[in-house]
User: Which sequence fits this backbone?
C-alpha cells in the first residue's frame, strides 16, 4: 500500500498558512499521531468550510465526517460516470464496480459512525471509520492486481484516505 504525497497537497499547505489556531493545533497533534496524515491537508480541508469556527475536538470530528460524507457522494457519482465509459477493459470495469459498492456502503457506515460518535460510543465510531478507510485502500489495491492498469480513482482514494485518517486521529484525541 503506497499513498503518494502529491503536489496538490503541498499547494494546499502553502495556501492555508494563516488559519485558526485551534484547527492548526489539532491538526498538528493529529499528524504527530499518524505519520501518514498530512498536516497541510488537514488544515486546508477544515478551513475550507465557510463560517466554521470550531472550538472543540468533537466539532472537528463532526466536521471531518461530514466532509467525508459529501466526498463519498461525489465519488459514487464519479464512478457511475466512469462505468459508462466503454474504453475500460473488463478487468477495469470489474474493479470500478467493486469500488462503486465499497463507496456506496461507506455512506451508511459514515452515518453510523457519526451517530455512534454523537452518543459518545467512541469505539464503534472508530470501528466504522476504520472500515470506511479500508474501503478506499481496497479500491486502490484492486487495480494493482494487473500490471499496466492505472486506477482512475487514485487521487480521490488518496484524499479519501487522508479524510478518514484525520477522523480517526481526532476520535482518538477525544479519549
Ligand atoms: C473531497 O474533499 C476534499 C477536501 O475538502 C476536496 O479537496 C476534494 O475535492 C473532495 N473530493 C471529491 C471527489 O468531492
Ligand atoms: C473514457 O476514458 C478514456 C481513457 O481514460 C478517456 O480518454 C476518455 O475521455 C473517456 N471518455 C469519456 C466519455 O469520459
Assistant:
Amino acid at each position: 500500500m503506497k499513498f503518494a504525497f502529491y503536489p496538490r497537497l503541498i499547494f494546499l499547505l502553502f495556501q492555508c498558512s494563516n488559519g485558526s489556531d485551534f484547527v492548526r493545533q489539532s491538526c498538528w497533534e493529529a499528524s504527530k499521531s499518524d505519520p501518514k496524515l498530512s498536516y497541510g491537508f488537514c488544515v486546508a480541508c477544515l478551513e475550507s468550510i465557510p463560517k466554521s469556527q470550531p472550538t472543540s475536538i468533537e466539532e472537528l470530528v463532526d466536521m471531518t465526517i461530514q466532509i467525508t460524507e459529501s466526498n463519498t457522494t461525489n465519488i459514487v457519482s464519479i464512478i457511475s460516470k466512469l462505468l459508462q465509459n466503454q474504453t475500460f477493459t473488463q478487468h477495469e470495469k470489474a474493479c470500478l464496480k467493486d469500488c462503486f459498492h465499497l463507496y456506496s456502503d461507506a455512506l451508511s457506515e459514515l452515518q453510523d459512525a457519526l451517530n455512534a460518535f454523537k452518543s459518545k460510543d467512541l469505539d464503534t465510531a472508530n470501528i466504522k471509520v476504520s472500515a470506511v478507510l479500508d474501503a478506499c485502500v481496497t479500491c486502490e489495491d484492486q487495480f494493482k492486481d494487473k500490471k499496466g492498469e492505472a486506477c482512475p480513482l487514485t487521487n480521490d482514494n488518496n484524499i479519501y484516505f487522508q479524510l478518514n485518517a484525520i477522523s480517526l486521529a481526532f476520535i482518538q484525541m477525544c479519549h
Summary: Residues 2-174 form a domain with the Butyryl-CoA Dehydrogenase, subunit A; domain 3 fold (CATH 1.20.140.40). The chain has a mean pLDDT of 89. Residues 45, 48, 67, 71, 74-75, 156, 159 surround 2-acetamido-2-deoxy-beta-D-glucopyranose (ligand 1) (CB under 6 Å). The two ends are 29 Å apart (CA to CA).
